[in-house]
From TrEMBL:
This is Probable xyloglucan glycosyltransferase 5. SUPFAM superfamilies: Nucleotide-diphospho-sugar transferases. Residues 325-531 form the Glycosyltransferase 2-like domain. Its main location: Golgi. GO terms for molecular function: glycosyltransferase activity. Probable beta-1,4-glucan synthase rather involved in the synthesis of the xyloglucan backbone than cellulose. Seems to work simultaneously with xyloglucan 6-xylosyltransferase. Xyloglucan is a noncellulosic polysaccharides of plant cell wall and consists of a glucan backbone substituted by xylose, galactose and fucose. GO terms for biological process: cell wall organization; plant organ development; pollen tube development. One of its GO terms (cellular component) is Golgi membrane. Keywords: Cell wall biogenesis/degradation, Glycosyltransferase, Golgi apparatus, Membrane, Transferase, Transmembrane, Transmembrane helix. It is found in: Golgi apparatus membrane. It comes from the Eukaryota. It holds the Pfam family Glyco_trans_2_3. The chain crosses the membrane at residues 66-88, 109-133, 175-193, 491-520, 526-544, 648-663. It comes from Phoenix dactylifera.
Length: 693
């Protein structure tokens, strides 16, 4: 194919600087004759004056650009072909695919609603296509005006289908458009309120950075060399079937820089796998032989999930000898100086009940899913936690990487097993009891985020159903508490309602229901600033704490809207105490954080020989049996990818709405619906995150 004249003009548009025209005749007869302006000789350096102007160089540049363009198109075509292949494999051939199995009543009502909405949208699209084909389509009807109805009455009826279409136009304008517009306006108002709250948090974070405000340690809290100034600290590591990460967590905690006679480590194992229990017990035995004061606890009656595990550990008689307790989940690796950076803040501050450190993620660049999670969590810690900690002395405890004053736990009622967010529960009760919190943004504890969508989805369900369940339980206590009205308003309106209930509600309703519905009822069209400008601006604010994630702003915006269906379903489950509101599924870990430490990897390779040298005869017998069992065990079968029905149904719904928007020539609406539908499709087919099959 000959290079086009338009491409040549575009190429030379910015480089023309005068000169005489030059007619270049190509040797290849397949190419056309191009007339271009010759460049000014003075524009080139002195070294180019003696060099001839070869017109073929310009041709090769054009060919190179064309080759790159063809390569880009080929890459896009290959990606689309791969996506279609995945759709065929998972939807039609069903190879290596397992469907999402929901418990009776769990999410069924929402799925039935979305499915019914999809059927109606298909019928409406078919009806609109027929009307558009016959020339009955109104480009931008405004059927609220009386003259519009008069126009409909004067139109000549061209058959029963034409009459049905005109009746549909009148019906949707009279009875459907108004309710949709009212709900749309409510969601827009909530959207604006949430955006203002997000901007206020960002301004608070900017003020903290500008003024360099942060908690500081006064003087030297550890003056005595004999360790008498060091308080007694209890460290707890709750875990349940954590085969991939138990070793690195125990190893990191046992290397904390603190006097051994003033530190006790509790490994709180709730595992129901005998092999994992034996491995954890052997790891504890290894560190105990090295002089670390560490104990292994396993509950016979494992109720109450993590809250029950912590409550059981705090009931031990020796706990009364300790002043502080630090908690680390099984995938967390604190630095050796963690206690020296956190415990001193309690000295001289008797009202302080909690010191919370932020999380650092070792696998944030593992795949697209972990990168998007890193954006959310960086904003949560750097903006939400830090601003609330500085200006309100309150934030939700993150369940790990924090140090509690044991007296604050006891005064607040201790760990309760009534919700799946026991960390938020104890934080709210401690705040109502008058205790203050400190957030340390400079102290990071390494951990990992879920790498598969299945694990992330289950984690988000618990994180959004638990707060709503807790809100039902805590609301009377908040209203009758003795704290100030400002703190009560902050807890009820901001902490619970705005950030835990309103956010998933308007996100799902506005972008997944009202927007596609407005394509079939154009009288209730959403303005462009709601669809494009404000969401992009809010996404930019979210990415500010993680500036390296700026190239992922569009995937982040689309993925957050995609997750709204899971968060909305979880919010409703927790608010109305449905079956899934008290469901705890341990987040699957990959053990990535241990791979970054080569010394720890070498230590793991020599673990068996160390255990054999220091273990008793009974332990050696158990370890030998375990080794034989592992050698005879079959290779683990990787879990198949899932198909998520709600996400796939919403993908089809949004793509149908995108097709309908083409008839109305709504540009920004079409592109948003198209890309959002593709995002739902990728998630519904489990094509984001770690591929498990």
């Amino acid at each position: 194919m000959a290079p086009s004249l338009v491409l040549s003009e575009w190429w030379t548009k910015d480089t023309r600087k005068g000169g005489t025209p030059v007619v270049v005749t190509m040797e290849n007869p397949n190419y056309s004759v191009l007339e271009i302006n010759g460049p000014d000789p003075e524009a080139f350096g002195s070294m180019d004056k003696d060099r001839g102007k070869n017109a073929k160089q310009f041709t090769w540049v054009l060919l190179l650009r064309a080759h790159r363009a063809v390569g880009c198109v080929a890459w896009l075509a290959a990606a689309l072909w791969a996506l279609l292949g995945a759709v065929k494999k998972r939807l039609f051939l069903r190879r290596g695919v397992s469907q999402e199995r929901e418990k009776p009543g769990k999410g069924r009502l929402l799925f039935k609603f979305i499915r019914g909405f999809l059927v109606l949208s298909l019928a409406a699209l078919a009806f609109e296509l027929v009307a558009y084909w016959k020339g009955w389509h109104f480009q931008n009807p405004d059927l609220h005006m009386p003259e519009s109805f008069h126009m409909l009455e004067t139109i000549e009826i061209q058959g029963w289908m034409h009459k049905s279409y005109l009746s549909w136009l009148s019906f949707r304008a009279k009875y459907i458009a108004y309710p949709i517009q009212v709900l749309s306006n409510i969601c827009i108002i909530l959207f604006i309120i949430q955006s203002v709250d997000r901007m206020a948090l960002c301004l608070g974070c900017f003020w903290i950075k500008f003024k360099k405000i942060k908690p500081r340690i006064e003087g030297d809290p550890f003056k005595a060399d004999d360790g008498s100034e060091y308080p007694m600290v209890l460290v707890q590591i709750p875990m349940c079937n954590e085969r991939e990460v138990y070793e690195q967590s125990i190893s990191a905690v046992c290397q904390l820089d603190w006097p051994k006679d003033r530190l006790l480590i509790q490994v709180l194992d709730d595992s129901d796998d005998d092999t994992i229990k034996l491995l954890i017990r052997a790891e504890v035995s290894k560190w105990s032989q090295r002089g670390v004061t560490i104990v292994y606890r396993h509950r016979l009656v494992r109720n109450g999930y993590k809250a029950g595990n912590l409550k059981s550990a705090m009931s031990c008689d020796y706990v009364k000898n300790y002043e502080f307790v630090a908690i680390f989940d099984a995938d967390f690796q604190p630095n050796p100086d963690f206690l020296k950076q956190t415990i001193p803040h309690f000295k001289g501050n008797p009202e302080l009940g909690l010191v919370q450190a932020r999380w650092g993620f070792v696998n944030k660049d593992e795949n697209l899913l972990t990168r998007l999670q890193n954006i959310n969590l960086c904003f949560h810690f750097e903006v939400e936690q830090q601003v609330n900690g500085i200006f309100l002395n309150f934030f939700g405890f993150n369940g790990t990487a924090g140090v509690w004053r044991i007296k604050a736990l006891e005064d607040s009622g201790g760990w309760l097993e009534r919700t799946t967010v026991e960390d938020m529960d104890i934080a709210v009760r401690a705040h109502l009891s008058g205790w203050k919190f400190i957030f340390l943004n400079d102290v990071k504890v390494l951990c990992e985020v879920p790498e598969s969508y299945e694990a992330y989805r289950k984690q988000q369900h618990r994180w959004h159903s638990g707060p709503m369940h807790l809100f039902r339980l805590c609301l009377p206590a908040i209203i009758t508490s003795k704290i100030s009205m400002w703190k009560k308003a902050n807890l009820i309106l901001l902490f619970f309602l705005l950030r835990k209930l309103i956010l998933p509600f308007y996100s799902f309703t506005l972008f997944c229901i009202i927007l596609p519905l407005s394509m079939f009822v154009p009288e209730a069209e959403l303005p462009v600033w709601v669809i494009c400008y404000v969401p992009v601006f809010m996404s930019l604010l979210n990415i500010l704490p993680a500036p390296r994630s700026l190239p992922f702003i569009v995937p982040y915006l689309l993925f957050e809207n995609t997750m709204s269906v899971t968060k909305f379903n979880a919010m409703v489950s927790g608010l109305f105490q449905l079956g899934s509101s008290y469901e705890w599924v341990v987040t699957k870990k990959a053990g990535r954080s241990s791979e970054s430490d080569l010394l720890a990897a070498a230590e793991r390779e020599s673990k068996t020989s160390q255990l054999h040298r220091g273990s008793s005869e009974s332990e050696l017998i158990e370890l030998n049996k375990l080794k034989e069992r592992q050698e005879k065990a079959p290779l683990p079968v990787k879990k198949a990818n899932k198909i998520y029905k709600k996400e796939l149904t919403l993908a089809l719904l949004l793509l149908i709405a995108a097709a309908r928007s083409l008839l109305s020539a709504q540009g920004i609406h079409f592109y948003f619906l198209l890309f959002q539908g593709a995002s739902f499709l990728l998630v519904g087919l489990d094509l984001i995150g770690e591929q498990m099959s």
